[in-house]
TrEMBL record:
Coiled-coil residues: none
Residues annotated as signal peptide: 1-20
One Pfam family cited in the UniProt record for this chain: Glyco_hydro_79C
Protein's UniProt name: Beta-glucuronidase C-terminal domain-containing protein
Beta-glucuronidase C-terminal domain segment(s): 477-587
Keywords: Membrane, Signal, Transmembrane, Transmembrane helix
Keyword Transmembrane helix: yes
Domain of life, per lineage: Eukaryota
Source organism of this protein record: Obba rivulosa
Transmembrane region(s): 652-677
Length: 678
């Protein structure tokens, strides 16, 4: 999407901006064609915490090694380090807090630009990217499922081809300034997604092309329903229609009323299409901020299409980096990411982002529709190198997602694009032939693990922003009441201070007479930390002691032994003290049950104790075995733990997927050229 600043563009520049928000094809030249070109930047280690900005870096943004300076710590007096927190156990006693509606574990999911599915998900139904499966499995095991959207700008022109051998093909549009490719997709795309769903519990959002409504192309819904069935969550109708005129996709003057009318044409066409059995899973209006949601609600949209709408949605990024991506007068001087870093490292960012939607989440609730943040991330136009790919983005992602949960969004999808995107949650290596373990997992991916565990699998988690520390902007905190009992706390510290002077302690008490409850503390509580040395780093990030690996080193599995911290509570003072390091996030489990339910190998189908899960396994191996044996999921935890020491994970996963799916080699990754999407 494009920034508000772009509103003032002249007509000529509009044409260029039209392509600014979509895929750039094959113009980067410096890499992709050969393997040799990658050495220069894959060896750039981005290590440590020292500021680093190699002027000569020529590789893609996804691999930019820049390390920014963390914002200087605020004056100690500005961040009290001894924080008293007393909360009721029973949600109905939380009168001073507003609790959200109930959320499910897969609240925070993924949005993948349609034009890069062949790099990220797979080439065809029998050639899946195992690191992607591993990453999805990590979330699914914690959340009870994963929601993934395949779409974006490139869904709009996407064209069905019945017999394509690959999931998608891309063809450059002649004359297009940026050589933007159109996506041609075949049923293989849907079989590929279906095969992913058979291995990992992934459900999908897709998009119906909306570049024109006089000749609708509904095959994605026809084939999607037929092939993916209940694994379809819904079909988006129009990706950021409020930018169509600016992008040259609709004539000047086209407005909310026109969107309303054209949406209605799709509703009628779907109703009339016998090949689309489900009539009530369309998603709109997906406006990005140029139109407010109210601009669309005021057309009568919700009332007119309530029978067809499965969810209401918006898309929004807090900032853009368009000036850097498109040098020239139209966007002004590039923004220095260093100047923006502090904007992501306080609670106002999350609060500001949701504020404009509070009216709409209330309206959505009143009409019984989910309200989704369908596409978001740190910044559009590729994000900010050094921010979007830093540990700070992971902390920001947690705060933003929890704030959306608190504000009664029903779900949110973090967008991942191509190699020229610093926002990516995961990026395959850019080489033509690459090794299995060479993915780069963006720090913001960790936020999906933390949020999944914070919400758990019950589907009954309600969230409150605790205004922790008197609402201090550097130390936000959330409480999660599950089935109306306080089960978890999420405590954040945005400050970087290696001296420890900005670590803070939450002194926590449960219950008390003011809540009509007996004050008590459990014998102990369990804490998992998301940790790194500084908000600036890209590497050495751990979640409960485990890491997904440094840049170019991930196979999508967590490495190392899980480390949970047991904090004994004082049975005399009836207090528990939780330290939150600067920087970091702490997820506090207030009961063994809360811990067990979020535990990776504990699923609803085969609960085990939380203590069996510390062994480092290839998660896909387990799920593939479960599938290929035709066994129930009950075997899964057991099989996972038998992997220890028997095979290296990637070989295990590859071999098992091979045998299950008849794939000769999953270790070969074929990059189809270089694309960028944001
Ligand atoms: C990661 O941490 C280890 C030990 O703390 C250190 O030796 C190593 O240099 C760090 N690596 C990076 C990339 O920061
Ligand atoms: C929570 O409080 C409400 C209102 O006082 C009460 O009806 C309910 O039984 C309590 N729930 C539990 C689990 O104690
Ligand atoms: C899927 O793609 C791989 C890699 O290009 C190829 O070897 C395989 O034959 C393809 N499978 C099908 C069913 O076309
Ligand atoms: C979509 O198709 C139209 C008509 O062929 C073309 O003008 C446009 O550039 C294509 N691509 C995008 C991204 O709109
Ligand atoms: C919409 O996209 C299709 C596929 O690229 C293209 O054939 C068609 O001309 C486009 N329509 C418009 C109005 O650009
Ligand atoms: C994967 O897709 C193919 C279609 O190409 C299908 O024959 C096969 O059964 C699928 N496998 C799974 C596990 O769904
Ligand atoms: C959109 O434009 C039409 C035609 O000018 C006008 O009648 C209508 O009121 C406009 N709708 C909105 C929401 O401004
Ligand atoms: C909420 O949205 C409705 C529908 O657009 C509008 O009428 C109302 O004024 C809005 N309320 C606020 C407080 O923005
Ligand atoms: C906090 O974040 C907001 C919103 O991003 C930003 O405008 C502000 O400058 C930040 N404040 C500080 C003190 O960093
Ligand atoms: C936080 O708690 C720890 C452990 O109880 C203690 O050692 C430390 O001094 C406390 N820090 C502050 C700032 O109170
Ligand atoms: C922590 O407390 C629970 C009871 O809530 C108990 O089952 C467990 O053994 C305790 N763990 C430790 C390490 O003290
Ligand atoms: C527990 O709290 C009591 C009462 O405040 C205090 O005297 C005691 O030192 C505390 N115990 C520990 C281990 O901190």
């Amino acid at each position: 999407m494009l920034p508000p600043a772009a509103l003032a563009l002249s007509a000529a520049l509009l044409a260029q901006a039209a392509h600014g928000a979509v895929t750039v094809y094959g113009i980067q030249g410096a890499f992709g064609a050969t393997d040799s070109g990658t050495a220069a930047y894959t060896s750039d280690t981005a290590a440590g915490t020292a500021v680093y900005d190699p002027a000569t870096f020529g590789g893609p943004a996804a691999f930019n090694p820049i390390i920014l300076a963390p914002p200087p710590p605020p004056l100690p007096s500005a961040v009290p380090t001894d924080v008293l927190l007393q909360l009721p156990n029973n949600a109905s006693q939380a009168k001073e807090l507003t609790l959200s509606t109930a959320h499910t574990g897969p609240f925070l999911g993924f949005s993948i630009e349609m034009s890069v599915v062949n790099q990220i998900i797979g080439i065809n139904s029998t050639y899946l990217q195992v690191p992607f499966l591993n990453l999805m499995s990590l979330v699914a095991e914690r959340a009870g499922g994963v929601h993934v959207r395949v779409g974006g700008n490139t869904q709009e022109n996407a064209t069905f081809i019945p017999n394509g051998p690959d999931a998608i093909e891309k063809k450059a549009v002649p004359g297009s300034l940026t050589n933007t490719p159109d996506v041609f997709w075949s049923p293989e795309l849907l079989y590929m997604l279906s095969n992913v769903s058979s291995l990992v519990d992934v459900q999908w959002y897709l998009g119906i092309p909306f570049n024109e409504t006089s000749q609708l192309r509904l095959q994605i819904a026809e084939y999607g329903e037929a092939i993916l069935g209940e694994n379809i969550m819904g079909f988006q109708v129009g990706n950021e229609p409020d930018l169509y005129v600016r992008h040259g996709h609709r004539p000047q003057g086209w407005n909310e009323t026109n969107y309303f009318q054209e949406f209605g044409m799709v509703v009628i066409a779907v109703d009339d299409d016998a090949h689309i059995p489900i009539k009530n899973n369309l998603i709109g209006p997906s406006v990005s901020g140029t139109w407010t949601p109210e601009d669309v609600w005021n057309t009568g949209y919700i009332e007119a299409y309530a029978h067809a709408l499965g969810a209401l949605a918006v898309q929004h990024y807090p900032a853009d980096n368009c000036a850097a991506l498109y040098p020239g007068a139209q966007y002004g001087a590039p923004i220095n990411p260093q100047d923006m870093f502090s904007h992501y490292l306080n609670h106002s960012s999350a609060q500001n982002l949701v504020a404009r939607y509070l009216n709409s989440t209330r309206i959505a609730q009143s009409v019984g529709k989910p309200f989704l943040m369908f596409e978001t991330n740190t910044a559009s136009c590729g994000g900010f190198p050094g921010i979007s790919d830093s540990f700070g983005a992971a902390l920001w992602g947690i705060d933003y997602a929890m704030q959306m949960a608190y504000s009664n969004f029903s779900g949110a999808l973090l967008h991942t694009g191509g190699l020229n995107n610093s926002n990516n949650l995961f990026t395959p290596p850019p080489t033509r032939v690459s090794l299995f373990e060479q993915w780069t997992v963006g720090p913001i991916f960790y936020s999906t693990l933390v949020v999944a565990e914070a919400l758990g699998m019950s589907g009954a988690s309600r969230v409150a922003d605790l205004a922790l520390n008197n609402g201090n902007m550097y130390t936000p905190g959330y409480g999660v009441w599950e089935n109306d009992r306080l089960s978890r706390l999420v405590l954040l510290n945005f400050v970087t201070d290696p001296s420890g002077a900005h670590d803070y302690n939450v002194t926590f008490a449960l219950g008390g007479p003011q809540f009509g409850e007996t004050r008590q503390v459990p014998p102990n509580i369990t804490v998992k930390y998301l940790s790194a040395e500084s908000v600036s780093v890209k590497e050495n990030i751990t979640w409960a002691g485990q890491t997904l690996g440094n840049r170019f080193q991930s196979d999508g599995t967590l490495q190392g032994e899980e480390q949970t911290i047991t904090v004994p509570c004082n049975q005399t003072s009836l207090l528990c003290i939780i330290t939150v390091p600067a920087p970091g996030a702490a997820l506090v489990f207030l009961s063994d049950q809360a811990l067990a339910e979020s535990a990776p190998t504990t699923t609803q189908t085969f609960p085990t104790t939380a203590m069996t899960k510390t062994i480092n396994t290839a998660s896909v191996a387990a799920s593939v075995l479960a599938t290929s044996n035709g066994d129930s999921a009950a075997d899964r935890g057991n099989l996972s733990s038998t992997d220890k020491g028997s095979m290296r994970h990637e070989n295990a996963a590859a071999a098992l997927v091979s045998s299950a799916m008849g794939v000769a080699s999953l270790c070969t990754f074929l990059a189809m050229g270089i694309f960028l999407v944001f």
